[in-house]
Amino acid sequence: MRSGRRPSELGDLADLLAGPVLPAARGLLGCRLTAGGVTVRVTEVEAYAGTAGDPASHAHRGRTPRNAVMFGPSGHAYVYFTYGMHWCMNVVTGPDGEASAVLLRAGEVVDGLAEARLRRPAVRRDTDLARGPARLCAALGIDRTSYGRYLLDDGPVRLRPAGAPVPEDAVAAGPRVGVTGAHDVPWRFWIAGDPTVSAYRRHVPRARR
DNA sequence: GGGTAGATTGGG
DNA sequence: CCAATCTACCCT
């Protein structure tokens, strides 16, 4: 896409995702993700570089069956299972062969509210439905079946450009949540003041038993 | 093959 | 603060 512009067309979004991960992460803010009858507006993301110099990336130690899709072309979903119970979703970015990706950390449910509530019955406030990477996937019904899916066509999981562009000065940046290292790298981006942005939690290694 | 830490969440 | 719950990945 033309540099400095947020994606307004599907082609712009495809070009953005094919480029460097940091602009891609910022540009994903405001985009719509639809799955399972629910649509969210993305409000918080984190960038992860490929094997080069990002110890927090799942691709840091090279290609494995789990992270294989990260090494492929951009625009596909990298979905992983963690803590024995949660699914999280990334959008693969960068050129084919480079394993960068953007974690979708939170969103605002803008359509399919009833469906989202069915999947997250304990939630009280609508702003909590997709407030967190695993909560977002739960609200949308995203699991292993979404692994590798291309997001820019008319498949079951669809990513679309922002309805209203997010102004540059409305984007805040800070350290990534839950990562053990690289706390000096401000690769988490969110829409400042948005109530659906997840709370920051410092990573605490679990005590050994 | 075994041991361990994990891009989290919900409850106390 | 801590348990839940299980998998991918590295190696005591």
Q: Can you offer a commentary on this structure?
A:
The chain is of the alpha+beta class and 209 residues long. The protein has one domain (10-191): 3-methyladenine DNA Glycosylase, Chain A. 15% of the residues lie in helices and 25% in strands. The protein is built from four helices and eight strands, in the order H-H-E-E-E-E-E-H-H-E-E-E. The chain has helices at residues 10-18, 21-28, 113-119, 133-140, and strands spanning 32-35, 38-48, 77-82, 86-93, 100-111, 157-160, 171-174, 188-191. Strands 1, 2, 3, 4, 5, 6, 7 and 8 form an eight-stranded antiparallel β-sheet that branches. Strand 3 (77-82) and strand 4 form a beta hairpin. Helix 1 packs antiparallel against helix 2 (21-28). The longest helix is centred in the first third of the chain and has 9 residues, at 10-18. The chain binds a DNA duplex (12 and 12 nucleotides) through strand 3, strand 4 and helix 4. Pfam families: Pur_DNA_glyco. InterPro entries: Formyl_transferase-like_C_sf, MPG, MPG_sf. This is Putative 3-methyladenine DNA glycosylase. Its EC number is 3.2.2.-. GO terms for molecular function: alkylbase DNA N-glycosylase activity; DNA binding.
